[in-house]
């Protein structure tokens, strides 16, 4: 692959080196001949400011030059051209990571090829992804001293919003109204990807772990404790924005890794808000990362030295983050199609990794994830620690495989067609509707069919075809009793109100076209449907959203608005945070 290197701001303008300069990095991304914008095969930077009603001149990135290498901080801060380059490069890097992890092209949620990115979209302390408007919109605002803060210069905000767009492309159904886990999943997943992806920038990690300069090649061992690492700027999200809206001078917008775990946290009404709920997911993922990192450090750190070589510390962090990042991305293929829960995501994480690496390896990523999610009361589906003794320890917590005893009918199913023809996939689904326990009276539809080629670190190649199908039933509340599912109309709901219910599943086929997994959310599961209907009815009946959020269109366009900046509730919660004292790595 031909690549090019271009300069970005590595974290955001508030994160500086010891010489006082903004921390930047040169990033390698795929080379493409760009039109002015820049406008490439997947991104179109449109620099329109809807507040000022001005168009900035589209920026042309010259073929083999990085115009912003070694430029002054004030040029980076004040050049709209650099801002355009910054968002283009950071989002392309993220897209490349997703495509590499999946072994295939990844669509945007908007279902257009070139996602619109507006680096100076409006004057407001906000940024959001909108599938309806086919783009990501970054705001800017003046702080107390009159200085302009640009959200398009924050690595974490850019990656967070772009992850929403990618996740929306992989699971379009996750913007359909559901119970709190689903929205929380979007937020927590986006935060985790934003933080883990920074660790791939080794030079940046070295500077932020060390003394802030490029020259010191050593790090004190007492900086490598779990507590110290969690406080590092690398583990926080959106430092500049957090500082501007906080009374403290250096404050990340979110630092989930410091939240105190509780097995009852998900039941707390406070944690129904999507960002607070998302923090629980990212706390589990990021604490797993710290644990793996420390496990790796312990394997080689000398007992007596006070200082150790920083390059090896950075290498360990980068490898651990990269592995977890790929696990998180690959897990999406194994996630249910509708109404995802954190328990289901954990199950998918473990399954995706097991499929590629049967053995959990010496750093025990899956064992650590089980433990860290467990601290928040999140366990895999059908998980029973007592029964796992009979199971292959490597398979603990994974989805159940299709048993060879199940009578799946492959009659007249052509393997080659199954990889790219949705009608062939539907034929398979329909002729197996009994054994797969589909609800026959629902509207049933294949919504995606994708093949992937994944390469494990040991060179093992895994070929899979992933097929998503969805089932839908739409009824008036008064007719609920006419369908063959025991659903109760919530008290106070009008007879004429429309209720839309969803179910569906993922079919994972192996390289021979044989069904390996069926990860289903049954539409005729009364527990599931009653929980969702009651939650949506009770949380939206008094709001302008109307129709209780049961229609697919609800929330389109502004779904992820306020996504980064909805912070008041977070600050309330922060008072209750404390740092977990954990074993010191150097002891
Ligand atoms: Zn968000």
How would you describe this protein?
There is one protein chain. The longest helix is centred in the middle third of the chain and has 25 residues. Helix 4 packs parallel to helix 8, helix 5 packs across helix 9 and helix 10 packs antiparallel against helix 11. 33% of the residues lie in helices and 17% in strands. With 587 residues, it is an alpha+beta fold. It has 15 helices and 15 strands. The site of zinc ion has 7 residues, from helix 3 and helix 4.
Shape by Cα distribution:
globular
Please compute the radius of gyration using only Cα atoms.
Answer: 24 Å
Query: Helical content, roughly?
Result: 25-40%
Number of strands: 15
Q: How much of the residues is beta strand, in percent?
A: 15-25%
Oligomer: single chain
Descriptors:
globular, binds zinc ion, alpha+beta, 15 helices, 15 strands, 17% strand, disordered C terminus, 587 residues, five-stranded mixed β-sheet
What layout of secondary structure does this protein have?
Elements: E1 3-9, E2 24-30, E3 43-45, E4 48-49, E5 54-55, H1 73-78, H2 80-102, E6 115-123, E7 127-130, E8 135-142, E9 148-150, H3 155-170, H4 180-198, H5 202-209, E10 218-220, H6 226-231, H7 239-245, H8 274-298, E11 307-309, H9 310-331, H10 342-356, H11 365-374, H12 415-418, H13 422-431, E12 443-455, E13 461-476, E14 498-509, E15 515-521, H14 526-540, H15 568-574
Parallel strand pairs: 3-6, 6-8
Antiparallel strand pairs: 1-2, 4-5, 7-8, 8-9, 10-11, 12-13, 13-14, 14-15
Helix pairs in contact: 2-3, 2-9, 3-4, 4-8, 4-9, 5-9, 8-9, 8-11, 9-10, 10-11
Bound molecules: zinc ion.
